[in-house]
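Late entry, written up from scratch paper. The run itself happened at the end of the previous shift, but nothing got recorded in the book at the time, so transcribing now.
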Amino acid sequence: MLSFTKIGIQYAHRFLGYEGEAQYLHGHSGELTIDVEGEVNAVTGFVTPCNGIKRLAWEYLKNFDHALILQENDPLLPGILDAYEKQGIRRGAPSNTALGVAIDTDLAKSYPECRLVVVKKVATCENLIELFHSLLKDKLNIKKMIFTSGDNGAAVVFE
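Output as recorded:
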């Protein structure tokens, strides 16, 4: 049996080295669907309460909501950090209250205080699923993830 939930995020990114519109900085509405597998609990009636899935996942995913996602070698990155420093928001601002659990893995590093995630791979749906799964796999028994970004998407079934 599967329990699943959907989580929406708004983000901006670009595809470094891509020829086409996606090479420019642009934004998306993304939606991550997380399917968790297990036995139905006779008392609760759930495999895993969907609100519990969402609450746990959101602690990490809020790093990506209303955030800028850039590859680590993007020449825009130093300029963004410099501009944030000059604006006085590099270390955070009082209006930035949605701080996620800081991420520092082989796939990404987050800067929750300035709504920035630096990734190793281009931020495609496929690569973002890999990143999201790496953050959540030890916390949830994930069977499947789907990530859509506008009209595009990817899905992975985990065995």
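The radius of gyration is 17 Å.
(Scratch paper discarded after transcription.)
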